[in-house]
Design a protein that fits this description.
About 25% of the residues lie in helices and about 40% in strands. By secondary structure, the chain is of the alpha+beta class. Helix 1 runs antiparallel to helix 2.
Length: about 90
């Protein structure tokens, strides 16, 4: 059995209107991380990430690093209960 963990995260900075949700979704799918991501009215982006601890660590690194367009100024994670049977990483609107 594979050990899975789940986190609720909030990212702030230049994270809306720059492809951030698709960036996170693509890396999550590459790392077999499930969960969801959505823009918030206050300009932040919230997400839940579930997967193996090493995959979550790698994804966190990609999120914090960003790219030419994305600049994450703060990123917080809080543990959450694992959601059984989750198979995808969705962008929520």
């Amino acid at each position: 059995m594979i050990l899975a963990i789940r986190y609720f995260g909030t990212a702030a900075g230049r994270v809306q209107g720059v492809g951030f949700r698709m960036f996170v979704q693509q890396h999550a799918m590459d790392l077999h991380v499930t969960g969801w991501i959505r823009n918030m009215e206050d300009g932040t982006v919230q997400m839940e990430l579930q997967g193996e601890p090493e995959a979550i660590d790698k994804l966190e690194g990609f999120i914090r690093e960003g790219n030419y367009f994305i600049k994450v100024e703060s990123f917080s994670l809080e543990e959450r209960p694992v959601v059984d049977g989750e198979k995808r990483f969705d962008v929520r609107y």
